Amino acid sequence: MAISLLNPKAEVARAAQALAVNISAAKGIQDVMKSNLGPKGTMKMLVSGAGDIKITKDGNVLLHEMQIQHPTASLIARASTAQDDMTGDGTTSTVLVIGELLKQADILIGEGLHPRVVTEGFDKARAKTLEILDSIKIAIEINRENLLDVARTSLRTKVHQILANVLADVCVDAVLAIKSKDKPVDLHMVELMEMQHKTETDTTLIKGLVLDHGSRHPDMPKRLKNCYILTCNVSMEYEKSEVNSGFFYKTAEEREKMVQAEREFIEQRVKKVIALKKKLCDGTDKSFVVINQKGIDPMSLDLLAKEGIMALRRAKRRNMERLALACGGIALNHFDDMQESQLGYAGVVYEHVLGENKYTFVEECKIPQSVTILIKGPNKHTLTQIKDAVRDGLRAINNAIEDKALIPGAGAFEVTAHKELMAYKDTVKGKSRLGIGAYAEALLVIPKVLATNSGFDAQDTIVKLQEESRNNKEPIGLDLASGQPINPKDAGIFDNYIVKKQIINSCSVIASNLLLVDEIMRAGMSSLKG
Amino acid sequence: MSAHEILTLQFGHYSNYVGAHWWNVQEAGFRYDSPSEINHDVLFREGVTLKNEVTFTPRLLLVDLKGSLKTLPQEGELYSLPSQSAPDQVEIIAQPPEEKNEFQKDIETNATLTKIYDLERQVRVWSDFLYTRFHPRTVNTVQEYQHDNENTPFDIFPLGANLWKKDQFSEDFSDKIRNYIEECNSFQGFHILCDSTDAFAGITVSCLEHLNDDYDTKPVLGFPLVQPSTNPIHLLNLALCFDGFAEHSSLFVPLTSKPPQFNYIAPNPDLKYHTSAILAATLDTLSLNYRLKSAKNTLIDVCSDFATNGRKVATASVCLPFPLKTNEDFIDCLNTWEGHLSQSVTPWCDINPDNSLQLVVLRGIPERRLKKPPNLAEKQRNYPAYRCNDLKEMLSYFIVCTSYGTKSEVTVCGEQMAVKTPFPGFFTERVGNTGDIDGGRSGPVEKINTLAGLHTGKFVGTMLETLSQELEKIKYKKYHQFVSEGVENDQFRECFDRLLDLKDCYEDNYLI
Ligand SMILES: Nc1ncnc2c1ncn2[C@@H]1O[C@H](COP(=O)(O)OP(=O)(O)OP(=O)(O)O)[C@@H](O)[C@H]1O
Ligand SMILES: [Mg+2]
């Protein structure tokens, strides 16, 4: 999407003009992003010149889709996508706060204050704001209820409420399933699988694994119960190797001989698997599944199918690890001395076919420590939208677990920080205090935009919130339904500590860089590279 | 019969030009009435849509920058379901729709494509002349960099390498590779086309490393596309690119975007649309060696013979069209032949057939045009080649007689190459409608005969030496943008040294 506002001719502005240019670029990108903020932000449908559709409310996705021409705007965009890379959230807020910091600074500079003094003030304010953040954070116990609150808050800013509730449950249960005591959570152990099918609210958590492939033999069983799972990384396909290839240096007979030997070698491997299956399963109600990271050729599939074994080839590398965690057992690199204890277990393994796509479900695992979120939706762009939301939800949950704390949302943090910064400002001597005031003012952009996006007047709302905040020790936020002050704690509206912290840090740094633009120009634009 | 499937990867805008022509040419050659000599299952795959329609699309993944697709939807049209109305309360931000050119409009309405289109002027990007429809997983765009935008240059190797390091891109891309290979019953290896003088080289080399890790037994045949240039940044990218191929591919064949002089075509050397067509014709012809139904070779045979003793680089040549005159037999044509059979399409490289190893493919000429039967043969009977009984034998004999110490493998395919629109109509007046020279023509040329070769020999060493000399002139320390994106100065030195080592592999005259 080309946004004309962001697209002034890329002139090399002289230092004096550069600031003005920076501020207008920041405003431009802010205007585009504003309407995203919060659960009442508007959903955006991006349509490319070729008709590709993308639906999103996510600042990060939007920034990636935009064609940003102006270098300043793209610097801000990069800072906020970096924000997303680190914490998975807070891109919209970053853009808004940077824009607002520049606007506030512009007023002061217009009154004759040197940009350097402004940035000094910003820096003091930043340090103080971090202190305030620490004092306001709420330590939490890691339990389902608390995690659900933060997941719901995050997801409701991305998808409609009914779906957000479904996804919040799915995400929290997924993380709780793979979380082991005191070890950091590895989100890679939650597989996200898309299926273009049914509707988005059919998205579910599978306590096991879903693979995006199936068996490639018509006679293989499509559904097995009580299964041994053999996970391996062992080639079961005959391949020409460099030794037995070429047309200049070897005769056909020489090659044929080597081919024969190679084929027998592969067959021996397959027979080892079959022997193990016979030993463990024959005469019992148990069955046998092979999941191989390497290839399995039609001849080997045929041998396995005759024994009623289900075999999958070319599993993804990461699924080797996931399978071991979901089903138990270990991924084998060879078939010598195979033991029952090296195998995993699943209550049921079955295949599902959709058009040319096959899926294999490995379910009813004993204590699955790797699970799959099966994302459903009627079309590709819905699937993408949900996948993005789920990723954000998972990260919000994981951030909460790592922080062991949450921040009251709905603008409560910003209103409180504003109040305390204004008090702090009075204790600081010199002109840099003006910068502190400007910083405090800039933070209010968050509750203001939350109000505007819900159809309330920004000024009225701020006044109400500040009044309530003055009389109340607890942080006060905005109820988007009524426009009245609430205690976000009671409403279960929480943000991540790490996200807020990151926003505070990166916004101050970027805004200051843009203010000290003449110095930056001297140092060369390359120093701005993110 | 089972196909030995190949997966093709295209990295970069020019690679996609070449690819677009190549897929077009193949599809134009599909035969629906009689069996084909060519096994199209090698490069294409059969699929089914959710609506149960059967599809036949390239087994292909390509990468290009955001904004380079113009009218081509990312997912293609084949698998799309009827679009639904926009959900309530969305703000629609629509880019102005891209206008399709006349050719694309006619494809959409299933019109017969027999008009003369002014594609020379209308083609802005490769999708403008793309006829083949793709599988939804084929097209990948890099979101971080904008096509043709000087504010987001994608111009140095490490930018591409860093992109691969970002989880999402490489994860999605390698998943798609795996999805394709999982479907194959007898996967034989990879074709890789890449732009070698910009950051796409960086993505390519990272991807090569991945292929080495996950598919170590599968050969990779690389075609780095070179825009001959003296721009130091281009050359540094090229050096890193070649170095990556030398380490991680089975064999690679640099191809130039600056075509040599041909007798019967007049391409505009500045038009990508033209120059890429020449390379596509080369690749389509050359690869018949392992794409015919009768083929005994697979990629690994070609790669392992050519790459013996570390000779990872080979060169390619083409004769386009192969100039058989109307009413003339193959034997007459060879008898009056002057100079080399084909022209080099590898940069900085003159191919000398002496003391070389080569693979030659001749396509389009029917066996009946080999020579005349004895009762009508007249002069032909006096030629020593008259005793040859088929095209393959005669061409092999010709090569033996006209070169010294050469080992050749000749492949012959009777099917001509289809060069209807959207292939460029850059043939000279002397080329007839079905490719015969001086056959008279009305309307565009539809089919031609071609010949292409893959070669290795001392001349490859000469090419590497030329490149090395250019590289030595570059004060690479000056190009700090490489360093700030993670390439150390030492790395350049080591890379240059390795290219010199590679050159040394070609010193030995005795190849066989
Ligand atoms: N139910 C709610 N009521 C009021 N405010 C809310 C509610 N849920 C979230 N918020 C506020 O919305 C803001 C987050 O909005 P949003 O997630 O759209 O933007 P972001 O996090 O800055 O960027 P990103 O697009 O990357 O997520 C936070 O300030 C949060 O406190
Ligand atoms: Mg958010």
UniProtKB/TrEMBL annotation, chain A:
Record keyword Cytoplasm present: yes
GO biological process, one term: protein folding
Subcellular location: Cytoplasm
Location, primary (coarse class): cytoplasm
Gene Ontology terms for molecular function: ATP binding; ATP hydrolysis activity; ATP-dependent protein folding chaperone; unfolded protein binding
GO CC field: chaperonin-containing T-complex
PROSITE patterns, per the entry: TCP1_1, TCP1_2, TCP1_3
Keyword vocabulary terms for this entry: ATP-binding, Chaperone, Cytoplasm, Nucleotide-binding
Record-stated family: Belongs to the TCP-1 chaperonin family.
Name listed for the protein in its UniProt record: T-complex protein 1 subunit gamma-like Protein
Phylogenetic placement of the source organism: Eukaryota, Metazoa, Ecdysozoa, Arthropoda, Hexapoda
Automatic annotation (TrEMBL), chain B:
Broad class of where this protein is predominantly found: mitochondrion
Keyword Mitochondrion recorded: yes
A GO CC annotation given for this chain: mitochondrion
Cited CDD domains: misato (cd06060)
Alphabetic keyword roster: Mitochondrion
Superkingdom, taxonomy of origin: Eukaryota
Location of this chain's protein in the cell: Mitochondrion
Protein's GO biological process: mitochondrion organization
All copies of domain DML1/Misato tubulin, residue ranges: 122-292
Domain called Misato Segment II tubulin-like: residue spans: 4-108
Similarity remark: Belongs to the misato family.
Protein name stated in the entry: Protein misato-like Protein
Species for this entry: Tribolium castaneum (Red flour beetle)
